[in-house]
Amino acid sequence: MNESHSIWLAGPIVEEEVEFTLFELCRATGASEEQLALWTAEGALEPQGAGPQAWRFDGPSLCRVRIAQRLTRDLEINAAGIALALDLLDEIDTLRARLRRVQKH
């Protein structure tokens, strides 16, 4: 007899159009408000809004915070280093996308 096993994975799908408040992003990532404010001050995150109570973070900010947390935890990088590392990772993604486009032609 053939048995069929199904595996279901559950997880949030975050689109770029999604917005998080500071509280919601803290809750989704486990980061503190102070940590997010520090990363924002260093330019690692770019929320819309006049101040912390009005900040709105886009969907990709969720991924950036998670990467920042790993870099902080695993490599003990400070906030300025986090901003630089995230910028460099963005640049790598951009270059890879360009390379894929060139290879298709």
UniProtKB/TrEMBL annotation:
Top-level taxon: Bacteria
Any Pfam family the entry gives: MerR_2
Protein name per UniProt: Chaperone modulator CbpM
Organism: Paraburkholderia tagetis
